[in-house]
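BUG-659 | component: ligand-complex export | severity: low

The export step for magnesium ion jobs runs without errors, but we want the raw record kept on the ticket for reference. Input record follows.
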Amino acid sequence: MTHSAHHPLPFISEPTATDSAISVRGLTKRFGEFTAVSGIDFDVARGEIFGFLGPNGSGKTTTMRMLTGTIAPQSGSIRILGEDVVASPEKVKRRIGYMSQKFSLFEDLTVDENLRFYAGVYDLPADEFVKQRAYVLEMAGLVGREKELTANLSVGWKQRLALGAATIHEPELLFLDEPTSGVDPVARRHFWDLLYDLAGQGVTLFVTTHYMEEATQCGRLAFMYAGRIIAEGSPREIREQHLLDIGDRDDSGRLRTASIEDVFVRLVTREREEAGR
Amino acid sequence: MMAAMLSRVSAIAAKEFAHIRRDPRTLIAVLIVPIMQLMLFSYAISFDVKAVPTVVLDQDGTSASRAYLQTYRSSDFFAIKGSINDLASVDEAFRNHLAQVAVVVPPGFGRSLAKGEKAQVFVIVDGTEPNAAQLGQAYTVALNQLYDNKVLVKWADRQGFDTTQLGRIEPRIRTWYNPERKSADFLIPGLMVVIIMIVTVQQTAVTLVRERDLGTEEQMMVSPLRLPELMFAKLLPWTLLAFVDMVVIALVGLYYFHVPLRGSVMFLSVSAGFFVFASLGLGLIISAIAPSMESANIIAIMVAFLPAFLLSGFAFPLESIPPVLQGVSYLFPARYMIVISRGVFLKGAGFNELWPQLALLGGYSLLVIALASVLYGRRAAR
Ligand SMILES: Nc1ncnc2c1ncn2[C@@H]1O[C@H](COP(=O)(O)OP(=O)(O)OP(=O)(O)O)[C@@H](O)[C@H]1O
Ligand SMILES: [Mg+2]
């Protein structure tokens, strides 16, 4: 199912599409007086790579934690793979995966022990585990290094192992929170190849990143600022929609082709100026 | 689903054991340090045991009493500084630092032995000596050894008696100046409780904070793992280790220090189970509220170390501490367990005498585990 090119306006509460991987309406999270996420709406179609961008502290991680059922929102609805996560976060847990910026590996355990642990947590049958373990080791380039301590792996390998651990139970939907921060460009390229492979197998990916060249690799993007979504669409749509907004012209007066990064910087600057006024 | 739950719990428990295996410091802290503490303690006991200045008072004046006192003269443990004529002279001998121990053989000693009855001997220890507690323990141990192994048999051999027909010589030790006489018997059942408390609280206090720092806690919260499963699985390895500790300390106490174990091992184990759970629950509460590893460690020391030593009845009798602190002592599980431990080891007490302590400990552990779950739940919802 392809997602509609026209996104619902935030204030129109249309019935949530049952075929979407993620469907969020009016999602709000407050920490005391502070509103970290302020009534956001968005949909992610199955099989899509959805990029979630925004400056530090804009509410990306908070949103992701609500989507994975780790924290409860104050208001709003979340449907993940057709299930109501706010009412019963347990239902989808086996079907989703999560990889955090910290990679969430036990450094004092071996590669094998880490995989075995996450397989156990997801109650993987023994034959499944054998199959998935072989797949992950192959994918992460760790064949023959199963007995090595995770602490001794370099960052790129750790990151791929973390991806393997997060997908050992073959989730339909994978959340990745800044999965490539602190990784060199070659390893990052390699990592995105792996993400494309997963998407090719039909896995939906929800990714936050601060790297704009990664953003352009996503099928669709949402820009967050101060707890709100300020722009949404495919990378191309976003560039085209905001070209005039930004009004950046070259020396001869023609509109300049904006990159995603240009749009991002301009949007954030404009929001900050408006907030300052 | 039971099977899924079992898989999750055993995955975590297996991982915990792997952590423990990888980090020798943990194993050392949990298994080696307690034994070292016990051994240090043993050194303190055997220290100064040789040639303790002693006076003897023979009120019986029979050949039996003379022969008995002769074994003191021939023993390395005691240096007999002389005979005295009455009990009042014991005081004088102590005050003049002539002796630290007085052995008194009361009238009727020889007669009792001849009849095959229990014969009594009094050993008086000067409690004002700086290391009086240690000395007191030392004397007890030394005397026990003398009585159990040598004195009776040797003395009987020399007298040509059949040892099986002999009444036992029963030492009555009285400390004149230190009514809270400490001895290995008295200290080891308490020390066992203190060590277990420190080890378990400290270890569980940091184990969950570490996961939070690593980000693995968040990872687990996204998984189907439930909070009670996580807590249970985390406690499992430490419960086992605590029991290993307890058995090792008990064996050292029994076979090395000759502490008697008069009551039911079963009752002791059940009580210890509750006690370990209560301690682990305290550790979990610390884990839930501590913002960092360092603070978890500090709180653990405050909650485990100090109360275990000072507010448990281990070092001071609880009646002798200020009433406010007495009240505070009820908040920590060690005080209940020390009563149970001493009762079972020394007095042969069991369920009939100690059920109130057991009930308190059981209620306490339930309360603490429940509180830990609530605190965790609240944390997770933030
Ligand atoms: N548990 C919490 N308690 C109080 N405030 C919080 C909590 N978690 C997040 N916040 C605040 O909410 C805001 C959004 O945080 P969040 O981590 O979602 O941002 P982010 O977009 O992921 O930022 P970054 O790009 O730096 O990861 C921040 O101001 C943060 O300080
Ligand atoms: Mg974040």
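Assignee comment: Attached the raw record above. Confidence is low (pLDDT under 50) at residues 1-16 of chain A.
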